[in-house]
Write a structure and sequence with these properties.
mainly beta, Complement Module, domain 1, 9 domains, 4-stranded antiparallel sheet, disordered N terminus, binds 2-acetamido-2-deoxy-beta-D-glucopyranose, disulfide bond, ComplSys_Reg/VirEntry_Med, Complement factor H-like, Sushi_SCR_CCP_dom
């Protein structure tokens, strides 16, 4: 039972009260559906009771108490009160939302047909005690706004009273203009037009008939507004031009120029003497394309790379014929007429001036590199002396004294044994006054300094600071690292060919740490089994590990010592002041350097720059400007 429980006033419900002897009846025994609640009081035998229906229901019951039992006199079942039909609305419909029929408690919702809108505020009706609440909602046709056009465009159709489904057609007044937008718009069910009123504007039509045009950008669009730009891509037998060349629609409906596909002026081959490997042909020859080229033999490239421009490859020509310049031979004269240059293979003759050798004419040839071959000096019969640097004449035949006549022999050696000798040890003066080989040269020291690695485990046969090239150094391994008793090293071009090879039965010597050292942590039978490493001052150790052990005959990987940086005059290149004292900074450390007086870092206007050190490399990110 719904609704608040009501205490029923007895004066209302008790029709008549007749007192008859007999058993009384109880209110709780009256149980009909949809009635007002009955209060549990006692009724005397013979008493009559009326029971009303609950709100919204129609009917009633009349009962009499007879010997403790209720007798039903009249029974009109409680049924829902009817509201009748809720009412149709023109151009709309309704739907029962709650309840099965139009009885008390029912609810209906109204909806307008497409193209109509509800003008009533409430679209819902309820069946209440007094009938349907609210009024039947009203649906009215939607109206689209009045169409306004400018003088350029005409609109036909219901432009003022547009209702759902109405169409408006537009046309341009001037035949020179095109509609920018839809030529037809519709009034939609929501009372808005399906699109804006179009404008008549100047357009350009894209009519590309060029067979080489393979694509326009944007693709597929044919009408363009003034200011819009189109690109074309041309194709055709590797002769493509105007790649994505763009052109623009102007205010008078014309393109700013007629797009065409031209034959590329960048040809393959680039010019007749350029040799292009085959794969170059697969590419296009569009504007902006770049090509590097090789020249066919006998030609030399004047530019390593060329770019395809409207005027063809630039720069050009790319391969020029290799030619020999007129020869310049002291004390000689060209036989015959002289030219400004000579083709490869050209032969000419020259003759030495009187008193110079050779006396007979010499024929020389322009070779494929543009050099004259067969050239000889015109000599007065002696070979020239040359400057001696790091080298000396060991002896001469017949002597070391000048002049060096044909047949004269010189033998050389380096002034320092540890220098490298380049060239021929002995050279001879030829009859034409030339040496048969150029003067030899000496340079570059090839000494070895004493080995530093694991020196404490060996005894050297010869203690020196410098060992000359190819010198052999014998060493004996010290106890207990003398499993192999001795070995030899050789200085080979400044480097020892190997390191000391000494080991014990248990462990090899601890790994050598460059720019660092170790201290012994533990030993076993005089063999070192654990060490700790430290780096030289200013060097930074890479690992913080107290002890490194030798396990099963192998040492744990040692750390490294990272190098410090020295602030040297390189900083002056960055317009920084070189500190007056030597400054070293450790790896990963920062240091602030002042700009030169009056200079700063530009954008930040700081008069200093922070520099840092990375394993010996000074890192300077900024310079002073
Ligand atoms: C109704 O009233 C009678 C008499 O007062 C009592 O015996 C009975 O228990 C009552 N029933 C209820 C449901 O209160
Ligand atoms: C280094 O030179 C010595 C002496 O000639 C030679 O015995 C040894 O085998 C060489 N070592 C290597 C690795 O070539």
């Amino acid at each position: 039972m719904r609704g608040p429980v009501q205490i029923i006033s007895f004066s209302c419900f008790l029709f008549s009260v007749t007192f008859v002897q007999g058993q009384e009846c109880f209110g709780e025994d009256i149980t009909y559906e949809n009635t007002q609640p009955v209060v549990n009081v006692s009724y005397a035998d013979g008493e009559t009771v009326n029971v009303n229906c609950m709100t919204g229901y129609i009917g009633f019951y009349t009962l009499q108490c007879k010997n403790g039992q209720w007798l039903t006199f009249i029974a009109r079942r409680c049924s829902r009160k009817k509201c009748g039909h809720p009412g149709e609305t023109p151009n709309g419909y309704f739907k029962l939302i709650e309840g099965r029929d139009y009885t008390f408690g029912a609810m209906v919702d109204y909806t307008c047909k497409t193209g109509y809108e509800m003008t009533s505020r409430i679209n819902r009706r309820h069946c209440r005690i007094k009938g349907w609440d609210n009024s039947v909602p009203v649906c009215e046709e939607v109206r689209c706004p009045v169409i306004h056009t400018d003088g350029e465009v005409t609109a036909s159709g219901n432009t003022k009273e547009g209702t759902y489904g109405d169409a408006i057609h537009f046309e341009c007044v001037s035949s020179d203009k095109k509609l920018d937008g839809n030529s037809v718009i519709y009034c939609t069910e929501n009372g808005v037009w399906s699109g804006p009123v179009p404008q008549c504007i100047v357009t350009c039509q894209l009519e590309l008939t060029e067979p080489e045009v393979i694509k326009t950008i944007p693709w597929g669009k044919t009408v363009f507004k003034a200011g819009e730009t189109v690109g074309i891509i041309c194709s055709g037998k590797n002769r493509v031009f105007n790649k994505q060349e763009t052109f623009t629609c102007t205010n008078n409906g014309k393109w700013d120029y007629k797009p065409t596909c031209e034959e590329s002026r960048c040809e393959v081959p680039l010019n007749q003497h350029v040799y292009l490997p085959k794969y170059y042909f697969s590419g296009d020859l569009n504007l902006g394309a770049k090509r590097s080229c090789s020249c066919e033999s006998g030609y030399r490239e004047t530019a390593a790379e060329a770019t395809c421009t409207r005027d063809g490859w630039t720069p050009k020509p790319l391969c020029t014929e290799i030619m020999c310049d007129p020869p310049t031979i002291p004390n000689a004269k060209i036989v015959g007429s002289q030219k400004s240059n000579y083709k490869i293979g050209s032969r000419i003759e020259y003759k030495c001036r009187p008193g110079f050798e050779p006396e007979e004419p010499v024929q020389i040839t322009c070779d494929s590199q543009g050099q004259w071959t067969g050239t000889r000096q015109c000599s007065d019969g002696t070979c020239q002396e040359q400057e001696l640097k790091n080298i000396e004449i060991l002896f001469g035949y017949p002597s070391t004294a000048l002049p060096y006549k044909p047949g004269h022999i010189l033998v050389f050696r380096c002034t320092d044994d540890n220098m490298r000798f380049y060239g021929q040890r002995a050279i001879e003066c030829l009859p034409d006054g030339r040496w048969n080989y150029p003067y030899p040269q000496c340079g570059g020291k090839v000494q070895c300094s004493q080995p530093t690695k694991n020196l404490q485990f060996v005894t050297l046969s010869d203690e020196k600071t410098e060992y000359s090239n190819f010198e052999i150094l014998t060493y004996t391994c010290n106890k207990p690292y003398n499993e192999i008793p001795r070995g030899v090293l050789m200085c080979q071009n400044g480097k020892w060919n190997e390191t000391f090879d000494c080991k014990s039965k248990i462990c090899p010597p601890p790994p050598y740490l460059q720019n660092g050292d170790y201290s012994i942590d533990s030993t076993k039978d005089e063999v070192i089994t654990a060490v700790s490493y430290t780096c030289q001052s200013y060097y930074v150790i890479t690992k913080q590990q107290d002890v490194y052990k030798c396990v099963d005959g192998k040492w744990e990987t040692p750390p490294k010592c990272l190098r410090p940086c020295e602030i040297d005059d390189i900083v002056e290149k960055y317009n920084l002041q070189l500190p007056t004292e030597k400054v070293y900074i450790r790896h990963a450390e920062k240091y602030t350097l002042n700009c030169r007086d009056g200079w700063n870092t530009g954008s930040e206007l700081k008069p200093y720059v922070d520099v840092s050190c990375s394993n010996g490399n000074l890192q300077i990110d900024k310079s002073c400007n």
